[in-house]
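QUALITY CONTROL LOG
STEP: pairwise intake check
CHECKER ROLE: data steward
CRITERIA: each record must contain a sequence immediately followed by its structure tokens, with no blank fields

ENTRY 1 OF 2
RESULT FIELD BELOW
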Amino acid sequence: MIERLQSWAERLSGKAQQTRIMIFGDSHTVAIEQAIAFRADNPDPVLPPLELFRLRKVKGEVWLGDTGLDEFCKKISRLRPTDAVFSAIGGNQYAIPSTVRAPPYFYLVSKNTSQVGVNFEETIIPVRVLESYISSGVTNSDGPMLQKIRSATHSRVFHLTPPPPKEDNEFIKRFHEKRFAAEGLGRLEPHSPELRLACWEMQHKSLTYFCSKVGVELLPPPTATVCPRGFLDKHYYGKDVTHANRRYGEQVLRQIASVMGG
């Protein structure tokens, strides 16, 4: 009823409201923010306007972001069905078990795959065990936030799949976040790229199931950003283990424009 009244009022006034596109997330919004800033001097191709918000939270002793989840949900409660919300919350559950190769050493075994990240004298872990661990992170961390966003608005809701893992172990040894340094990265070696990709695929599988269950549309990484082996193409590396760069953010903006019919 409210939507019909809004539409009637717009026709009566002779002008239709512009479609609103709102993006909300955590650290993966940085690449998008950088792409938007770059576009101030490089506007081609022209893309639809959007509003970007980063989750406000404390990290260590520093506050990051500008908008709390409840505040964002109030904003999107006023959106119409023709508007859209794009979530970039969370996204790095796969990296927890697959970045730092520390004891006890392990590799994965399943009936469908050969050994992943094989070394002698390691522990064998069935794939379903690691799948369950990663899935619990998705369900218990990102899940409640996605559900709250979905329940707060009449608009379409999309979730941006996090960038696929980086293949280059030498790059990861040189550029990584403090949390991975604290776990020994730099002193210890990274896990094999194949293990990282396998864990990312487990996370994507879990996201696919969860999003379909709560009515959120899951978007894959932009096709141009993924190399033939399934890893993040080097052109789109951000300078740490898990994040992408401004060029990746630009591809996401174009992906959003395509989804919205731009």
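ENTRY 2 OF 2
RESULT FIELD BELOW
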Amino acid sequence: MTAKKSKMEGSLDSFPENQIYLNIDQLKDGTYVLKIMKNNKVIKKTTFKK
């Protein structure tokens, strides 16, 4: 006898458009600088601590 292959499918809710999620769980404790760039120029700079 041959085993039947089963097919499993699923779907995820889509992320909201125009949003970027940054998960900092794996970062070490410290101070970080996040720079957002457009055309090789920094348009937004923010600093955060973990």
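INTAKE CHECK: passed for both entries
DESCRIPTIVE NOTE, ENTRY 2: The first strand starts at residue 31 and ends at 38.
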